[in-house]
Specification:
Shape: rod-shaped
Order of helices and strands: EEEHEEEHEEHHHHHH
Helix content: 40-55%
Distance between the termini: 112 Å
Structural class: alpha+beta
Number of helices: 8
Radius of gyration: 38 Å
Number of strands: 8
Largest sheet: 6 strands, mixed
Low-confidence stretches: 142-150, 173-183
Oligomer: single chain
Strand content: 15-25%
Length: about 300
Amino acid sequence: MDNQEKRTVPQTFLLLKFGANIYTKDGREGSFRFDGASADALIAEFDSRSRDLVIDFEHSTLSGNEAPAAGWIDRLEKNAEGLCAHVKYWTDKAKEYLSRGEYRYFSPTLLFGRGGKSPAALHSVALTNHPALHGVDALVANDINPPDLSGQTRKDSAMNQELKDALCKLLGESALALHDADDEQALGARISALADELPALRAKAAKCEELEAAETERRKLELFDRGLKRKAFCNAQKEALMKLPLEDLENLEKNSPDHAVLPPPLPQPAGDGRKPQAVLSPEEKKIAEKMGLSDEQFAEIRKYCENKEIE
């Protein structure tokens, strides 16, 4: 390989992905979950040490023997994908290995708490070609001069997260399982399963709305009948009253006095031959206002009710 054909050595790389992380150790497979809280714990533990973290070769730091550094991590930070490591600098030897593709992967050494379910501290990171974690991205691309897709990758990742959040918001509690999806195939399968549930959920929602409307109608009839018995309402008002919102009808029935539709005092004849102005009691005026009726319209309805009672 020509010395000018060099791969780009990263200054920042994704150390741990959010979600399920599968690993193989001593021939046995295991897994642990990594989330935002776990990332915060690792960052806090790292910051508490107030020193850079070593990147070695093949976990040589764990052996207790001579363990030259490949580089140093001076900062851990969280993004939409997981926990990222910022490299303060790589040694010349490490840069040569990485740029020539002789080392392509990394492997973090994690310390777990008593429960053993999530990492509590980051001991070190090693350059290796046999990482314990499955699905680890290569530190350097396989191609010599790959196109710069970092911006598009970040954009796609943010878009995928927005899509997942939107689906959870749209589908409610039944979509919470989407947060546990580990890959696109699993995510697609769960979305498909949730989509199959939608027709039944919509049918249930429609039935609930139908029952709610029927209960509202029943309650309105009950209120009208109660007002009718007290002569607070009359049959001629029924159609208009039933169109009122339930809360308004409840307040109207509650605040209307008994015999609110009794005949008012007879108006004095007008000297100019015009139709006498309707005279309503204060209670009747309140009812007419609630029903959106003028004094004259309410008086006509009242007159009709009085005639019906006489019959």
